[in-house]
Specification:
CATH topology of chain A: TIM Barrel
CATH architecture of the largest domain in chain B: 3-Layer(aba) Sandwich
Number of strands of chain B: 15
Oligomer: heterodimer
Shape of chain B: globular
Radius of gyration of chain A: 19 Å
Number of strands of chain A: 16
Distance between the termini of chain B: 16 Å
Largest sheet of chain A: 8 strands, parallel
Strand order of the largest sheet of chain B: 10-9-8-7-11-12-15
Number of domains of chain A: 1
Strand order of the largest sheet of chain A: 3-16-15-10-9-8-7-4
CATH architecture of chain A: Alpha-Beta Barrel
Number of domains of chain B: 2
Largest sheet of chain B: 7 strands, mixed
Structural class of chain B: alpha/beta
Largest interface: A-B, 35 and 27 residues
Strand content of chain B: 25-35%
Number of helices of chain B: 6
């Protein structure tokens, strides 16, 4: 404590700002991770800036077999956000494990969160088993919350018992850290987070998008071909913050907080709510440099708020 | 699928990838040129555009997602956009005054590939429907610079929607006009303006129904597609489409697709 006070009293230019965070025993140089589905497999973004700036990278969600996804339109505007119904378009786990992850690893040396999804317990297990053999995948992020595929992941993410079953089944086939990505479309997210924790999850990723829709009033039909989609963007940030805070107080494992984060101030707020690291999603689509800009702004805002180490503020609320 | 010839292989990966950037661009002019149709010019690093038919993503305050707009013309530091007021974003754009700035993300998309036009005797037609017309202006200029003599067919709903007729005629190319209500030119779709003629090669931009309607006016063709996009640079999978050569993203693998790859 004395040491902290001494550090606060140092001249700003002398203060050492430490943006590092730890997800279990994995160190990130900063807490900012682009969210799954908003960064592809990194190749397009690597042309824009050095991915080594990032704390980590969560790649596009992968299923056992390749999927084209939903019909278009898949994107609709919303006040302070967007509704998407991409529907898990991906080239399948083999292509991701054999081609996409090695390519990403050749572009940067940062922890990779390989995101998997499925339509059955067997599919999740098959994906996890394959990624367990991948030397590039640092963390398995398990999407049990996609709202855009019928009979898909969210079935498992809206029921504590089913979430626990998937967690345990994946735990049984991999020694890699497992982060369960939760849906906000539930009555009690803490109960589901606790069930994941009890079944061997190493952490919680939250939140996925909110089930939503838009209607084209001229055409008198839904904007999205899939009718419904998932809402993300700054519109959901206050709800995400509340949910992360509730889960932080309900579990002992780390929480990766996400939902509408756009600025370095949002990152601070999310960490104060209890997040160990954060993901930035929708903002990448509007500004491809969003993650970079937030990371570059973070030390300055920490300095301004007299934060030397993000551990000082984690879950202070 | 058969073998893929050189021009097809090229069409599969049109244009050269350039670094995408964001810039605050100053509006030089913004004027109404036809019914609900505006022409805006902005200062811009135009040297980064590699082909006509590329697009920019415009950030409009009060709207979350950027608005993709095709480039009408880019050169000597001035970017020309022609857009129709169809919703909230374009309405805000229309109210902008010279001197104000807009944040643009660019250059995006592949654009039209003119290197496939080898013979100078090739008969080329450009076909534009409504606000699908603007990118054909930059394309026409480029083709003429390269020694081609393209013709243009333009289709509109009615006479008050017609724009850029003089601009195209000033390039010295024949211009055929069709309007749905017959208030100018030939009555009917832009297909009617073809009057039964065919060409060696066509470049088209407009609504999908129009693209489909004109596709057989030439054996070779490039078609610029519209799509609702999330990002515009290939990461969100919002604008995916199926082609004969696999799944593509309209924003980075398009918006221009070649005739032989399109599944209608």
């Amino acid at each position: 404590m004395v040491d902290m006070i001494e550090r606060y009293n140092m001249a700003p230019e002398a203060r050492v700002i430490d943006t590092r965070v730890r997800l279990g025993n994995i160190e990130l140089k900063n807490p900012v991770i682009p969210a799954s589905g908003t960064f592809g497999y990194g190749a397009e973004m690597a042309e824009l800036y050095d991915l080594n700036l990032l704390g980590g990278i969560a790649v596009k969600g992968t299923t056992r077999n390749s999927r084209f996804g939903n019909d278009t339109p898949r994107i609709a505007e919303a006040p302070c956000g967007l509704v998407n119904s991409v529907g898990l378009q991906n080239p399948g786990i083999e292509q991701v494990a054999a081609v996409e992850l090695p390519r990403l690893a050749s572009l940067c040396q940062i922890p990779i969160l390989a995101n998997i999804s499925g339509f059955s317990k067997e599919e999740y297990v098959a994906c996890a088993r394959r990624l367990d053999q991948s030397k590039e995948a640092t963390i398995l992020e398990v999407n049990i919350s996609c709202p855009n595929v019928h009979g898909g992941g969210s079935v498992f993410g809206t029921d504590a018992k089913a979430a626990a079953e998937i967690t345990a089944a994946i735990r049984a086939v991999t020694g890699k850290p497992i982060y369960m990505k939760l849906s906000p479309n539930v009555t009690d997210i803490v109960e589901i987070a606790k069930a994941c924790e009890a079944s061997g999850a190493d952490g919680i990723s939250m939140i996925n998008t909110f089930s939503a829709m838009r209607i084209d009033i001229c055409k008198r039909r839904p904007v999205l071909a899939n009718v419904t989609g998932g809402l993300s963007g700054p519109a959901v940030f206050p709800i995400a913050l509340r949910m992360v805070n509730q889960v932080f107080h309900g579990v002992k494992i780390p929480v990766i907080g996400m939902g509408g984060i756009t600025t370095a101030e949002d990152v601070i707020e999310m960490i104060m709510a209890g997040a160990t690291a954060v993901q930035i999603g929708a903002a990448n689509l509007v500004n491809p440099f969003a993650c970079r800009d937030v990371i570059l702004a973070l030390p300055e805002i920490m300095d301004k708020l007299q934060i030397n180490d993000l551990e000082e503020i984690r879950g202070i609320i | 699928m058969g073998t893929i010839n050189e021009s097809t292989a090229k069409a599969m990966n049109l244009g050269i990838k350039a670094k995408v950037k964001t810039d605050n661009c100053e509006i030089l002019s913004n004027r109404l040129i036809a019914a609900s149709t505006w022409e805006m010019t902005l200062t811009c690093d135009t040297a980064v555009f590699t082909a006509p038919g590329q697009f920019v993503n415009v950030q409009v305050e009060g709207c979350y997602l950027r608005r993709p707009l095709s480039v009408c013309h880019a050169g000597e530091g001035v970017l020309t956009l022609v857009y129709k007021v169809v919703g909230k974003g374009t309405k805000i754009m229309a109210a902008k005054e010279p001197g104000e700035e807009l944040n643009l993300l660019y250059p995006l998309g592949n654009g039209f590939d003119t290197t496939c036009c080898k013979s100078e005797s090739e008969r080329i037609v450009l076909i534009g429907g409504g606000v699908g017309l603007p990118p054909l202006y930059g394309l026409a200029k480029k083709l003429i610079e390269e020694g081609q003599r393209p013709e243009l067919l333009m289709g509109f709903g009615s006479a008050d929607e017609i724009f850029y007729e003089a601009e195209f005629k000033n390039l010295g190319i024949p211009v055929g006009i069709a309007t749905m209500d017959g208030s100018r030119g030939i009555k009917g779709t832009v297909l009617a303006a073809a009057e039964g003629r065919t060409w060696n090669r066509l470049f088209a931009c407009g609504p999908e129904a129009m693209l489909q309607g004109v596709r057989d006016l030439a054996p070779e063709g490039q078609f610029s597609f519209e799509s609702r996009m999330g990002c515009g640079f290939g990461v969100c999978m919002g604008c995916s489409c199926r082609t004969k050569y696999g799944d593509k993203r309209i924003c980075v693998d398009g918006p221009v697709l070649s005739k032989e790859e399109i599944i209608w």
